[in-house]
User: Fold Leucine carboxyl methyltransferase 1 from Neoarthrinium moseri.
Amino acid sequence: MSAPQIPNLLSLRGRGGARGRGARGRGGFASPAGPGSHDTVIQGTDTDASVSRLSAVDLGYLEDPYARYFVQQNAGPPTRRLPIINRGTYTRTSALDRLVSTFLFGGNRGDGEKRQIISLGAGTDTRPFRLFSRPETRGLIYHEIDFPAIAAKKRATVQSIPVLRSIITISSELADGTWGNQSLANESSYYCHGRDLRDFAQSTPPSLPGIESGIPTLIISECCLCYLQPSEAKSVISHFTSLVSSAALVVYEPVRPSDPFGRQMVSNLAARRIQMPTLELYPEVTDQQTRLSEAGFQDGTKASTVEDIWRKWIPADEKERVDQLEGLDEVEEWELLAGHYVVAWGWRGQGFEGWKDL
Assistant:
């Protein structure tokens, strides 16, 4: 799953159109939706996500040697996104990477202790390849869940690219649509599950192979749960948190649908037959934090807009480096865009002590 097109910031301010298409959950953009169901439209945005990630990589915002393998190489140069969009991709990725790294490599981790990540609506995310290629990654059990068609697409890509195949050699394919490798280096494992997340909101949800209940587990939703009905999203969160005693959830979603920008964003989504039901239930940053508290993350909850993360998390020298890549004339537009996306995180149990200082 992935987030679709948002309003063009320049056109909102009366300055005409542009080729950039707005931020999406994992760093991509959606083309106008053609015929097909809502699910088909959502699945189709993953291609745009990959293109947007590659734009940020090619321009030097991010280091990701695996991004190019998930973009179809057509004739002509790769698509280049607007500077404010590339900065948004960079900032959101930096925030998620910091949370994940603190969880996996923080000083509170004991020798030989395993960690688990469950990524909801993972699409063609490259994070598992980036993590498994790091020599310090050990004892990591990584699960990705997405529609069967998306999981199959990722499997085909991994099989066809030697460098990807060298990191995650496909050693098993289970009957329920799961593929992966349970014997990676440093006692790590990878599972890619082809499942509709709504299955886990049912009264009798399916079981997933490889889930370990006794280890700290980080659940990630980057613009994924927002496509579900609120009751379904709550049930999905409840299902996965019920599987483990020590759990955390990171959510990246749009907010503030009621101001002029937000209303235009919702209107653009509706024109493409795309709805984000949870946006109405959690419209403000504080609502996202309350959402996590109500989900049982009693040890701590925090939330920051992408704008706040850029100001507070990115060091001054790194800001200067990013500024020099393209320059950013539309500062007000950047603040407007970045203020409408939030990263929220909550935790309970052992394994997340390092998050208290973030």
The longest strand covers residues 247-254. Residues 1-35 have pLDDT under 50 and may be disordered.
